[in-house]
Amino acid sequence: MKFTKLSLIAALAVSGAFAGEANSQTTVAGKGQLYYYTTDNGGNGDLFDSESTASSAAVTLDVTHKVTNNISANFSAVGYSNLGDSLGKNKMEGKTDGGYFNVANLTATFGDTTLIAGRQLLDTPMLGSFDWLLAPSGFEAYTLANKSIDKVTLIASYVNKLRANNSGDNFINLKNDNYAFGLAYSDDISANLWYYNVDQANYTQIYGDISGKIDDLTISIQGVSTDYDTGDDSTAYGAKISTKIDDMELSVAYDDTSDRASGMVEVDSIYTSSWNTFASQDVGSSWKVEGSKDISGINASMSYADYETIGNEFDLVLGYKIADNASLDAIFTNTKYDEDSDAENALEVIGTYTF
Predict the structure, then answer these.
(1) Average pLDDT of the residues in 184-208
(2) 286 and 308 Cβ atoms separated by less than 8 Å
(3) Which of the residues 15, 23, 51, 94 has the least number of beta carbons within 10 Å of its own beta carbon?
(4) CB–CB of 348/35 below 8 Å?
């Protein structure tokens, strides 16, 4: 369930992401995808057995129409169809086939300020679109960003609805007020500071991180403080050190979460999180080591993480670029979801064609 980050700034400039001819009023892009997922359910099933497997084909179509020089209408339509019971009796998105608009908004830019109103993808450290299986989770929201201050981006989002990952077209109403305010700084060092009010889950939260280079090392630290309306509050601190030796990227990370799991909506940015595990939901100490390297045209990444209460996880992620617009990815995971359960093996194979 890897979350592949979509830059919020790129999301704010979504019309640019789909840019075609300079004089075109409507531009179209998208992707086709085949997805195969199988698991042994922690020893209660078998890999490749149809009872513990799901497979699907999906097409995502992204359309941007330039209404004026400053305003664009943006749509992302997702259509999918599962590939039959012989290739998996479990149904992605909860149905044999279907479709939905994951994005449907107006984006207006005036000077250094951009407003997105409507269905959109969000990318913030502790509230954002979880990109796994056929499409990222989506939100109905109002997002405002301003870059008037050099090297600083100010961001505010007010969120009304959420379509959770792998839930089909089910946008649910969020209760009362759910919003985020953020500041992002980028120069020789990068830093983020965020405030969240999530009435849906009865908490407020402050998140901060800072990252910079010392010689060949990149050192990052982060902190999360969650104030729940009832019961214990949560405090988390983390650190990560990354480097590159020859053509291999290496990192080691540590996190400590006290008293209670941190609040999150769909994603977290905790350094020790893995493909299947959100470290923010672990209470206690966790650590993770990771390395990646290109081998004969294959990008290979391998990691191992150990958690206090959740268990542990090993991930092997392989990516191969078949052509400029086609790729094949395979992900093997061995995940122990809690200390008292057996580890679960899972394999995901993804073929993607972009256009």
Answers:
(1) 98
(2) yes
(3) 23
(4) yes
Report phi then psi at 267, rounded to 5.
-140, 165
Q: Which two tokens stand for residue 313?
A: 């996880």
CA distance 118 to 21: 26
Q: What's phi and psi for 174, nearest 5 deg?
A: -95, 140
DSSP β-ladder status, 284-295 and 248-258: antiparallel
Interatomic CA distance for residues 41 and 49, integer angstroms: 11
* Long-range contacts from 189-192, C-beta under 8 angstroms, 24+ separation: 192/125
Tell me, rounded to whole angstroms, the distance of Cα 50 from its chain centroid: 28
Q: Where are the alpha helices (DSSP H) in the chain?
A: 8-12, 14-17
Q: Residue with structure tokens 């390395």?
A: 291
pLDDT digits (tens, 9 = 90+) for 263-290: 999 999 999 999 999 999 999 999 999 9
pTM of the model: 0.90
Residue 44: which region, alpha, beta or left (left: phi > 0; alpha: psi -120 to 50)?
alpha
pLDDT digits (tens, 9 = 90+) for 156-174: 999 999 999 999 999 999 9
Judge contact between 13 and 114, C-beta under 8 A: yes
Cβ contact 232:260 at 8 Å: yes
The residue type found at 264 is M
Separation of alpha carbons 266 and 5, rounded Å: 13
